[in-house]
Amino acid sequence: MTKVTMTVNGKAVSGEVEGRTLLSQFLRDGLGLTGTHVGCDTSQCGACVVHVNGQDVKSCTTLALECEGAEVRTIEGMANPDGSLSVIQQAFQDHHGLQCGFCTPGMVMTASALLAQNPTPSEAEIRHYLEGNICRCTGYHNIVKAIMAASGQDVSHLGSDAIAAE
Amino acid sequence: MPKDHGIGASSKRREDVRFLTGRGRYTDDINLPGQAHACFVRSQVAHGRLNGVNTADAAAMPGVIRIFTAADFEGVGGLPCGWQVTDRHGAPMQEPGHPVLATGKVRHVGDPIALVVAETYDQARDAAEAVVVDIEELEPVLDMKAALADGAPKVHDDLTSNLCYDWGFVEENREAVNKAFEAAHHVTTLDLVNQRLIPNAMEPRVAIGDYNFATDDSTLYTTSQNPHVIRLLMGAFVLGIPEHKLRVVAPDVGGGFGSKIFHYAEEAAVTFAARQLRRPVKWTCTRSESFITDAQGRDHVTKIELALDAEGHFQALRTETYANMGAYLSTFAPSIPTWLHGTLMAGNYKTPLIYVNVKAVFTNTVPVDAYRGAGRPEATFQLERVIDKAAREIGMDPVELRRKNFITQFPYATPVAVEYDTGDYNATMDKLLEIADVAGFEARLAESKARGKLRGLGVNCYIEACGIAPSHLVGQLGARAGLYESATVRVNATGGLVVMTGSHSHGQGHETTFAQVVADMIGLPENMVEIVHGDTANTPMGMGTYGSRSLAVGGSAMVKATNKIIAKARKIAAHLMEASPDDIELKDGRFTVAGTDKSVAWGDVTLAAYVPHNYPLEDLEPGLEETAFYDPNNFTYPAGAYACEVEVDPETGRVTVERFAAADDFGNVVNPMIVDGQVHGGIAQGIGQALLESAAYDEYGQLLTGSYMDYAMPRADDVPFYTVDHSCQTPCTHNPLGVKGCGEAGAIGSPPAVVNAVVDALQRAGHTGVTHIDMPLTPSRVWAAMQG
Amino acid sequence: MYAFDFVRPATLDEAVAALGGEEAQALGGGQTLIPALKQRLAAPATLVSLTGLPELRGVCAADDGTLCVGGATTHAVVAAEAAAHYPALAALAGNIGDPAVRNRGTIGGSVANNDPSACYPAAALGSGATIRTNTRDIAADDYFQGMFTTALEPGEIITEIRFPVPEKAAYVKFEQPASRFALVGVFVAKYADGVRVAVTGASEEGVFRWTEAEAALSSDFGAGAVSGLSVEADMMIGDLHGSPEYRAHLVKVLTGRAVIAAG
């Protein structure tokens, strides 16, 4: 076992891991941050996407020890400091961009990385950027729509949206 | 103005906040104190005699707690099948045993042979690799027709053949149908394959067994669409644990699409192991493992024939289908190609004579069972494809041919034993042509042509039988279970409501939709209603979420229970206001004496129920809690019309879906936003089936598409924005909400639209010999078709 | 995964020393290796991470017109930093895998692995690149030796890949629908002394040069130049995603498209 130290969602953390321990395992089992999901073992589904030093990476295809000293951000660290949903998270709720919720953390992390690079992506750019994130529930319509909405684009022509319930 | 709350409002989903912040609680997120980890030793061959399992070396490896083999499961029951189909000669289907761990033989790649329990998962997996399995390989049975040939190797030695059943429906019509074909003006014939699919819910299956030896209570945490059914099947048939000593919990479930209906061996194995070891035992499926253990879907080989008269009226329909059961009968497997398929062969059309023959076959492949749509996509695909082919053959517009044969009078009893209560197929077709802008197709075709692309338009209809189902009917058809739902509505003293439902959500947003229904009935804010589900310890019996049934059946139970609450609350209110219960009106959460300004608030009544100082105790019990069961008296029949426009790259055969429109009649709609989302997801799965997905086995029975490297899941850039509409509403006549169900429609209606569109594109480009291409329409298949 | 030790050397010498150990294996970004380890297809005793070596990272233009890419440079960095110098290479890098894979996966890892469907081998062979290792320079023509087979010796580390920058170039990939790797990918590069055409994804023998097309395009750089050629299906890969004939057909179609894209 080797000690690994990193910053996760702004907090310094450390733990004892094996060489083969994946970042996703360290987050889920070591730190109890179970929002990061594992949906495949061939690095394709993207449910495990987190940010390492500001970049979106697949935590199931990254060794924990590779992240020594890194700044890691997970879905648990995405809400606003007051606990309210961030713009992207809120857009996913408003536009029904999730159903079972399993792929959602990876979708939000990937969308956030996209908008950091490209604040107003086109539909095609969004669809292309989501190549490594598989959703089986939504048919992607409302995910793409939510990301467009989060970037300030008009999506009113793209079907029903949530109405604020009391 | 759209409604902003209650039934008909696109209320935001309350589930979303936890899912969006990483605070969902899926089964794999649960870790119990003292938990051990399980890994299964699985067959790597499709068919073989299991001569021995040597665990000695493995048992000595670090961290290993115990290794279970089939010998440990002696006295434990096999996994039960929930439906018995009777063949066309009146004999029951052949029903092989399905042991928890393979016994005597292994019958598919992935068949579990042993269970290794260790302190960590890696230790369990390391040891699993060290278990020595002595298997004498046998010739696998893979092709269904070959499996039925004389002398074919048998999947189950104790059965007479690999034929599970040979089903005829309606058998009495067989001769009349044959005669109609002999006399027909025109017969269109189509041979097709509805390929095997893998459901691929994004959350892999997980099962955690727990046992308290002090109380003899067992608990199973599992990824299930129906925890009550698992409790019943596993308790009564497999492990012999009475239901009151067994709790099954399915927390947040990450998608299912049918694959999490069934009772799986792993659930029984970890529950059994936990009892033996007196420790929690956790199994988390890897995706690679789910490819060879989750029940798969579809896999029909069909010949369909349609007889028409000179004007294009359908005279008769005849089908012969080979349906793959895989190596064992999964929970509902026998019902899928029969009662969920044959009964839908009338489609939206008044074909007077129909005969459906289905031969269900055992093969050395993963068991096949319900996958989104379950039987109905297979029925719709063959029917809507053969109609398209017929239209081309007789030179009639495919939409006109459909309209000419639409059922227009309701109720309508089909020749395949179901009665459609309502529908308006011309209305959904009209709506479709409008929202799909079919009038603009020619212009888009010209534009595609200018870019060197072929373009095609595919249109089709679908109907499904949902809201499964009347228990008395399915009992006659061989179901070994009832198919009701139930709900308990508990009103607390301070007025809030908790609805405990036997239905369970795996992404459908029940917590939101159900709350809308109950809140609307009483006139309260939705946030005063909490939904509890997924745990047999605190919910009444439910048969599960599948077959687009949760709102139609479970929601109806909730309505019944809420009506009981309202009736009692009305009596309490009458007492408080010294009026007759008949004069009490409930509106916006307030009880009023009709024609007066006397009123009491909801909270006053609920408080009185629990603090019954001024209360008619002689007539009414204190408290406010009611339970209702609802058993429907018919299926519901959602229907609609779908249109797809594709472009085909003539050089590479690559198909792109450019436009997709769906006009559905779901009856009444509670949350339009959620309904849109259900249709979107179904369409993507249908496009996936049409263009991308296939569970392909090689000649040894190895799954060639055993990971996302080869099994093509639809990605965001494989699909367009969809145009969906559910404004055509003919409410269901026999449930209190008038709802029909929307969960499967998209997956049922979309595959033929895509294939019709591709064939149309090729025909328009002069490839007149191409009348059909089997799914998935990969670039290579489409290119090959264009080569002639 | 089987258990292994993990080391992350800070210098090339340390890395070379570590790779000299028993059953040691280099780890680039791990985007292919880690999934393979998860399937237990390999059992290294030690994984030697190359991501801690700053000298292996980065893109720079040499005075002789060569673009040098450090072996541990991620696809995302190549996509961004090569764009001004070698747009076709940058575009290729920017379309490997998905964004998360591009943030971890490295050029050295890809070229060392030499997956028959990977993109980078087509760029390296199509550009006549030089694979520079800790011990020597290897011409791309000598380096790629068939599916998953290269000229690398055990323990040899790719430190840099040097791409001669062509006058025009383009890469066209036809994706396998599931993996999104190249079902067929064609890299066409026009240099003053001739045209190179490298094909990935198609052949049982891994990335290869389509010399007939090179000859035709060297005398007439236009899509029409290849329309009369044909590709033998004999050595093409056949699987459920495409027959050998289909792949052979795609080689020709995509070569034409790459020529058009190169302008």
UniProtKB/TrEMBL annotation, chain A:
UniProt keyword annotation of Cytoplasm present: no
Residue intervals of the 2Fe-2S ferredoxin-type domain: 2-78
Organism: Rhodovulum euryhalinum
Signal peptide range in chain numbering: none
CDD domains documented for this protein: fer2
PROSITE patterns for the chain: 2FE2S_FER_2 (PS51085)
Name the record gives this protein: Carbon-monoxide dehydrogenase small subunit
Keyword terms of this UniProt record: 2Fe-2S, Iron, Iron-sulfur, Metal-binding, Oxidoreductase
Gene3D superfamilies per record: 3.10.20.30, [2Fe-2S]-binding domain (1.10.150.120)
Molecular function per GO: 2 iron, 2 sulfur cluster binding; metal ion binding; oxidoreductase activity
Domain of life assignment: Bacteria
TrEMBL record, chain B:
Keywords: Molybdenum, Oxidoreductase
InterPro entries, sorted: Ald_Oxase/Xan_DH_a/b, Ald_Oxase/Xan_DH_a/b_sf, Ald_Oxase/xanthine_DH-like, AldOxase/xan_DH_MoCoBD1, AldOxase/xan_DH_MoCoBD2, AldOxase/xan_DH_Mopterin-bd_sf
Keyword Nucleus: no
Residues annotated as domain Aldehyde oxidase/xanthine dehydrogenase a/b hammerhead: 21-139
One Gene Ontology term of the molecular function aspect: iron ion binding
Pfam family, any one: MoCoBD_1
Superkingdom of origin organism: Bacteria
Keyword set includes Oxidoreductase: yes
Protein name stated in the entry: Xanthine dehydrogenase molybdenum binding subunit apoprotein
Source species: Rhodovulum euryhalinum
UniProtKB/TrEMBL annotation, chain C:
Key word Flavoprotein present: yes
Xref: SMART domains: CO_deh_flav_C (SM01092)
One Pfam family it belongs to: FAD_binding_5
Domain of life, source organism: Bacteria
The keyword Cell inner membrane belongs to this UniProt entry's keyword annotation: no
PANTHER family (UniProt xref): XANTHINE DEHYDROGENASE SUBUNIT C-RELATED (PTHR42659:SF2)
Name of the protein in its database record: Carbon-monoxide dehydrogenase medium subunit
Organism name: Rhodovulum euryhalinum
Classification of source organism: Bacteria, Pseudomonadati, Pseudomonadota, Alphaproteobacteria, Rhodobacterales
